[in-house]
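Researcher: Re-running this chain for the archive, since the previous output was lost when a drive failed. Same request as before.
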Amino acid sequence: MSKSKLNEQTLIMVSLRIPLSHSKLSSVGIAIDTSAPPVNTWKMTILVIILSILLFSSSAVVVGAFRVPPSNLFNKLCSSRLNYNAPTTLLHSSTTTPNESTTNNNNDNDMKLEQKIWMFNDKYPISYEVASNSNLVTNNNNNGEIVPILLLNGFGVGSFHQHRLMKQLLLEQKKHQDTIDNKQYVIYGIDYLGQGNSWPTNCNDGDSKDELNLGYSADMWLDQLTEFIQEVIIPISSNKKVHLAGNSVGGYLATILTSRHPELISSLILMNATPVWGLNLPGWDGKLPAPTIPKLVGRKLFDTIRDDDTIAWYLNEAYVHAEAFDGTSFQDYETSDQTINEKNQALGSKIKACTENNGGHAAFSSILWSAPASESSEKEDIADFYSTLGKLPVDVLLLFGENDTWCTPAVAKRMHINLASRSDTTSSPAVAATQRYVSLLNSGHCPNHESPTAVARVLLPWINSQDRSNVQLVSDSNAIIKEPWSTDISAHEVTIEESNNMGIMDRIVSTLAS
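Model: Regenerated structure tokens:
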């Protein structure tokens, strides 16, 4: 590798490694000339742009659902070949030990998972899935109450990342049907536009007529999710609301959406939510087609992070248990989606498949340059995540994998403190809403996929309770949970006193992640 080539790749990978907060550096500006620069300044311009990415880099967008890779990945990626041996479960089929999480038995025969398409803005086909029991009551009569739950993914995955949790929630419903007043869960998963299986028609690297003036951003995804809830979910909901649960970037989106439209939300569940978004770089608003320089930088970064070995590193850091990397979920159910029928398809393969659309490079470049979410649908002031939490008028459950090395327990505790401040009568306005924090030991950044049984057993009493401030979320039946790929998952509830007693280092860490 030439020295100049090595230097360019070095700068790019450094930008991927450093999780700096956009909010601390947002006052720094670098002018970007969107026209082609003279030949003698071309390399210098690219270096300036890459350095600006280094300064503004936000790990929530660059790696999305997964933590930035460990520091020694930088050296490996700058060599001609990685010498890392990824777990065999990552990109190839695997076998797991069956239990109720993965085995289809007689009690599961009436479960179903349906793939559907919904049109966003009457233009963009959005892929979504619905999991339910086949005896579902589909109207609001005396036969049952319809309780919809929308699960939001992290960045870079599709709704397949929620299949395990979907199934476990249905299993828990069946197990406790006699005690939950004949409630029927309808569980939704959705792919954001430009992720998973949701793409504009006839993508052509940002240059097609269907991509013209399309900007991938938090605001656009929030508009998509809001309209989806209003048009698809609310009409079937008994109380015209939905329980909203988000993992990683999905938690960020769920928080802002709840702030904008609390009238639509029954409760909010944050699973290792990411508190940051976006580079917010000046010079381009993210609308396609992309200018030359942002397009080149985005392409380089996109190809780097979707490399098989890089995906392996991300997963290895995001999960505690490498055995959980396989795709076991709804695989035994009849469906037209072959990626679900193929048993034990590796998670890494599914993630890689999400990047192979003809619009992938352009979508990533647009997201990379985008601003954080706006505080309101009017797209004016940028929302501050922690301040937004402190104003939410709905019940909020923090459900965090304790072994997450990016969204650490310190981050969860800071969220807990901000949520608890809502009841302060000296604040304006004071909010009479409940907040609870349950920590899952031996689980990482994606508890919905790594610890679905434990998550489902905490969510069931939360969702069905009329008094969430007093309902028992951790009991003898769910304090210790065994997933098929793990040692015991231990659940325990964190009190507000514990959160308030954060040490100095925890306070520093939680402040940096904002």
